[in-house]
Amino acid sequence: MYRKGVKGIQTQIKRESKSFEAIQQGSVIAVLNTLGFVITEVFFKGQPLCFGKKIDKYVDEQFQTEIVADMSLNQIKSLKRRRDLNRAALSFNWLVEYLEQLGYTVERRPTKSAKKTLQMEKVSKISEKNGYIITLTEMQTIGKEVNSYVISQFIKLEKTTVLREYHPLCFDLLYYSNINKNNSIPYCSLSNNEIKHQHKAKIENENSSDTITLDECISTPKSL
Q1: Within 10 Å of residue 202's Cβ, how many Cβ atoms?
Q2: Cα separation, 166 vs 58, whole angstroms
């Protein structure tokens, strides 16, 4: 009975961890979208980043270095499972690096270390120099809303979906909830389109003297 109870608790913890991973990913995607990123293929300033291909190439190369001829079926399955976990972790961690390269500060929670599996970052707060902040509480709402929208737009036959740059949903979720924090814009006095263009102009102005090139925006993935 006791062992079953412990197993049930462990299962619940894993389920909640996976749920949070999806929520924080939705939140990071929302911020990146307001900076000009689209999904998918991932474009930035009109140029494709080949995001998925680079991630797949990296984890597949890692997989090939670990697999050997005399492995059992279970060992191969375990190796493939680790490859999938590494793909998910690296994809999210890379998105976080994009945010940081574009001037955002990302606070993280500590994660347990693993010998061969890359750990997904656990984000606790996202902020920028002008005072814009997403707390853990706000992340719950933002992440769920973005994920729900992306899923609703999923085209099963083509296995692709698109979240256009500067999407109104992301501005609604991110900026309307933060307007009163910096008091630079009276609450709801501007249309969503005006807020979008004002923010886009601000980003372009900030980057005009220190432009981030495509190569600079793509950092080398962290080693496994």
Answers
A1: 11
A2: 30
